[in-house]
Amino acid sequence: MFFHHNSFDLNYKEPFGALPTGSHLTLTVEAQDVTNVRLHTFFNQDEHYINMLPTHSPGKYSISLTLPKKPGLFWYDFRFESNGKKYGYGTQGDGIGGEGRIYEEITPSYQITIYDASRKVPKWYKEGIMYQIFPDRFAKGSTYQGKFFPNSLIHGDWNDKPHYFRKNDGSIAYWDYFGGNLEGIIEKLDYLKSLNISVLYLNPIFESRSNHKYDTADYKKISPEFGDEEIFKKLCAVAKKKGIHIILDGVFSHTGDDSIYFNRYNHYDSVGAYQSEDSPYHNWYRFTNFPDQFESWWGISSMPNTEEVNPDFSDYIYGSDDSVIRKWIRAGASGFRLDVADELPDEFIAGVKTALLEEKRSSVLIGEVWEDASNKIAYDVQRQYFMGHELDAVMNYPFRETFIRFFLGEITSRQTHRLMMSLYEHYPREQFMSNMNLIGSHDRTRILTVLSECADSCHNDEEREAFIIPDDKKEIGIARLKMLSLLQMTFPGVPCIYYGDEVGVDGFEDPYNRSTFPWGNENKEVYNHYMHITNLRNSHSALVRGAYVPISTHIDDIFAFLRSYEDETILCAFNRSKSEYLLFSHDMFRNVFGLNMDSDTRDDLSGFTIPPLSAKIYKIEATFSNLMKRYNPSSELSL
Q: Do the domains 396-539 and 254-307 match in fold?
């Protein structure tokens, strides 16, 4: 008995990947010593078994069908009989497509994402390079004097370590600030342009007493430490002249308890939801026993959850003419990133997206989703992020986690390819090419610390504040950072640089990953590398918008792929090991740039070496580039 299907291969599934509504699809299997071959499908409670017919090729069965005309997840697997027993054939059980396996009982299905293709992601976003800023820690303006809330600690030294000053119960006694603000960002826009930044994502800037601002006090005011509405408008205007778009952080699943809406401590003139059941904001929240028992974000009482589908709340955030979303888009923002998108109802996200499009057709909406966003289930609800009416992109945490594991030697190149191919197959092409590919962020240990294998080196805050990465570990960490950041710039999607990563900032988890930018003390080696790789990306259309073709080198330590667009095809190969490898190229590669000290200059190469802990980037001869168009964009090639 033999049965085979590979959803990554056009010989078995055509077209590849996620498909628009109403698409035509052909599925093929190879089989021997089997009978009664059937396709099993499931879509929106509709289940079907369809007989597959033998093709003209011996041992092959095929079926063509038209997919549903509405968005959703379409599932399929195969059923057959052999020697009087019934079998199924589906994925390998890990939610990843490609080659499957035979089952005698429950058969896990293959996924096809069916989406409405009417909307496209704006070019300025999906072809850009993003930079993320935690506003208090990036740069101080030369003239603006921040207005800080009472009971705040203002560091006198920009180079101090951030610290949580806690009460005995673990809550924050007072918040520490360093004085970074919007004016400081304006003054550093030329620095960002030197890194080819075209998209600037700001962590929350709306009024709040905390330094992180994820407990919003007033969605319609800039927090006074950072500036005011006029300074924000100036930031957007100056950035626009430099070709930089501003994306804001929208935190709508909860507010702060110390806010004009909840007003738990009577700091505001408003009648808050905590103060009175007659408050205009009372129905925004979920009280179980008024006023002290209410639903809050992850049980943190300072962040009461909102009732997003409440008409008054949704109207305030996006529906009315003076809503939060419309206000800041009119002020100059180009889009929003939605905090904890999986905690926001689909109709709320769709409403935000509609308001964005009504205000600015070229605006974008990015969601914080930590897993495969195409099949995400949150609170027992199958989410609709990629069906065509909600998110343009998501934060690509699977990218970050997968490649950290690869470069630390925890998974092989083949396992890495499968994980990335899963996203490539499940995501609509617009979303895959628009993934926010991050390697650092405000809620993760600094990437240099991770790659130096020091993330678990300390056991308490005192040790974390004093820790210095040993030189030998830092050398390896920087070598890995160079590879990972180069991969980030050459992989499909929008690369996002977390402020300071490009100059070698290290640190543990929150708050140590939110240290100040080390102006005047940058690691020049790392900075020069980032200058080189951002220039590299922007200089080659294939790296910005090209098709993705994984390459199997049959070497666990080598991850390689091609990017191909029009007449340009580029090979990217990464060696994570401490050994040198010689790879053969069949005389088809011509080196046009190298990121190592050595540089191959021959027009034709019978092979090339990749030194330890480094990468090679090659441009392929145009004749081979034309040949590439015949290949399935998802097929593996032998190098």
A: no
Joined together, the tokens standing for residue 49 give 């078994």
pLDDT digits (tens, 9 = 90+) for 207-236: 999 999 999 999 999 999 999 999 999 999
CATH number of 396-539: 3.20.20.80
| Residue spans per domain, the chain | 2-115, 254-307, 396-539, 546-638
HSE, CB side, 13 Å, CA atoms: give it for residue 540.
30
Active-site pick, 127, 215, 339, 502: 339
pLDDT given for residue 607 in this prediction = 66
3-state DSSP call for residue 172?
Answer: strand
368 an active-site residue?
yes
Which residue is catalytic, options 183, 258, 308, 368? 368
List the Cα angle 610/616/617 in 5-degree steps: 160
Between 343 and 624, the more confident residue is 343
DSSP state of 258: S
pTM above 0.85, yes or no: yes
CATH superfamily of the 546-638 domain: Golgi alpha-mannosidase II (2.60.40.1180)
Closest CA to 352 of 340, 364, 368: 364
CATH of segment(s) 254-307: 3.90.400
Residue type, 171: S
| pLDDT tens string 498-514 | 999 999 999 999 999 99
The reply to whether 339 belongs to the active site is yes
Question: CA–CA separation, 416 vs 412, rounded Å?
Answer: 6
Residue 225 DSSP one-character state: T
